C-alpha cells in the first residue's frame, strides 16, 4: 500500500533537527576576516586606552609598593606623582609603555575578543545568556588571556620600578638570574584578577546596557555606551583592587624561593593584612579607579565605534 511505502512524518524530524544543528555549528564558525576584525578592534581599543592611562598605572604600581611588609604613613597619589616628576622626570610616567602596549593588543584582543564567542557557545550549549553565563564567559576569557600574556605583564611591572631598564635586557636578566619560570610569577593572582576584572567589567557593561535600553529612553549609541562603561568601571575597580595589589607584590619579588617574602597569592594577602592592615589591600585603590575608570570608558566606547566601522554588531 502507498501508506506503507511512504516514510512516516516523524522520520523527517531528525533531519530538520540535524539541519538546525548544522546551522548552529556553522554560526559558531564565522569567516576568518570577521575573526580578525573582531580581535583587531578589541586589541586596538584596549591599546589606545592603555596609552592614555599608562601614567596612572605607573603611579598605581609605586603606590602598591610602599612600606612592603610594614605599617607606615602612606604617600598619596599626588605625592607619588610629584616624587616621580622631581626624582625621575616626565619620562618616568611612561616606564614600561612598550610591554604595556604589546600586552594590550594581545591580552585586550583575546580578553574582549573571546567574550562573545564564549557567551555564544554557552548559549548554544545551555540555551541561556543570563547574567551568570555572562560572568562565566568573562571569567574564562580573562583567565585564559592572562595565562598566555603574563610574561609581558611581569616585564612591564619590573620596568615601571626601574627607570634604567630596557625591555629585552630585562627579559634576559629575569631568565638568566631567576629562570624562565619567573616570567610567570604571580600568574595565579593575575589569572584570578583578570577573571574577576573581565567578568565584572564585561558582564556589568553588557547587563547595564540591557537594563538601560529596557527601562530608560536611551538607545544604542554614545550616551548608552558611556553610562554603561562608567558603571562597569566602578564595579570592576571595587572587585579587583585587592587582587591587583597582591599580583603586583608577587611579580616584583626577586631572589630564590627561600628568600622570598610571599609564597603564593593567599600567603601574600594574609601577610599584607596582618602586617600592614586590611586597608593595605586597597593601596593605590584610587589610582586604580582613576586609571581603570577612564580606561574602561575609552575601551568600550572605542570598541563599539570600531566594531560599527568594521561592520560588526555591537557588544
Automatic annotation (TrEMBL):
Keywords from the named record: Membrane, Repeat, Transmembrane, Transmembrane helix, Transport
Keyword Transmembrane helix: yes
Ranges: Solcar repeats: 33-121, 129-211, 220-309
GO cellular component, one term: membrane
Cross-referenced PANTHER family: MITOCHONDRIAL DICARBOXYLATE CARRIER-RELATED
Membership in a protein family: Belongs to the mitochondrial carrier (TC 2.A.29) family.
Name assigned to this protein: Mitochondrial carrier domain superfamily
Organism this protein belongs to: Arabidopsis thaliana x Arabidopsis arenosa
Amino acid at each position: 500500500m502507498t501508506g506503507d511505502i511512504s516514510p512516516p512524518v516523524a522520520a523527517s524530524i531528525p533531519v530538520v533537527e540535524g539541519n538546525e544543528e548544522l546551522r548552529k555549528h556553522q554560526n559558531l564558525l564565522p569567516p576568518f576576516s570577521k575573526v580578525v576584525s573582531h580581535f583587531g578592534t578589541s586589541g586596538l581599543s584596549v591599546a589606545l586606552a592603555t596609552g592614555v592611562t599608562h601614567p596612572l598605572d605607573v603611579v598605581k604600581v609605586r603606590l602598591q609598593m610602599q612600606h612592603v611588609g610594614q605599617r607606615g604613613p602612606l604617600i598619596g597619589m599626588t605625592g607619588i606623582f610629584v616624587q616621580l616628576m622631581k626624582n625621575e622626570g616626565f619620562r618616568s610616567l611612561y616606564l614600561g609603555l612598550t610591554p604595556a602596549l604589546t600586552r594590550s593588543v594581545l591580552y585586550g584582543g583575546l580578553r574582549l575578543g573571546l567574550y562573545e564567542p564564549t557567551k555564544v557557545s554557552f548559549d548554544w550549549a545551555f540555551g541561556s545568556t543570563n547574567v551568570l553565563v555572562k560572568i562565566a564567559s568573562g571569567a574564562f576569557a580573562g583567565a585564559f588571556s592572562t595565562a598566555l600574556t603574563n610574561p609581558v605583564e611581569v616585564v612591564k611591572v619590573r620596568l615601571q620600578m626601574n627607570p634604567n631598564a630596557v625591555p629585552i635586557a630585562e627579559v634576559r636578566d629575569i631568565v638568566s638570574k631567576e629562570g624562565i619560570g619567573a616570567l610567570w610569577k604571580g600568574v595565579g593572582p593575575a589569572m584570578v584578577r583578570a577573571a574577576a576584572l573581565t567578568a565584572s567589567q564585561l558582564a556589568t557593561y553588557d547587563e547595564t546596557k540591557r537594563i538601560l535600553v529596557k527601562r530608560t529612553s536611551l538607545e544604542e549609541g554614545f550616551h548608552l555606551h558611556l553610562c554603561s562603561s562608567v558603571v562597569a568601571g566602578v564595579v570592576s575597580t571595587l572587585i579587583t583592587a585587592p587582587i591587583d595589589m597582591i599580583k603586583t607584590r608577587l611579580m616584583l619579588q626577586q631572589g630564590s624561593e627561600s628568600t622570598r617574602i610571599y609564597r603564593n597569592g593567599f600567603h601574600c594577602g594574609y601577610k599584607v593584612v596582618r602586617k600592614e592592615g586590611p586597608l593595605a589591600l586597597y593601596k593605590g585603590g584610587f589610582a586604580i579607579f582613576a586609571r581603570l575608570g577612564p580606561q574602561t570608558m575609552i575601551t568600550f566606547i572605542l570598541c563599539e565605534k570600531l566594531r560599527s566601522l568594521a561592520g560588526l554588531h555591537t557588544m
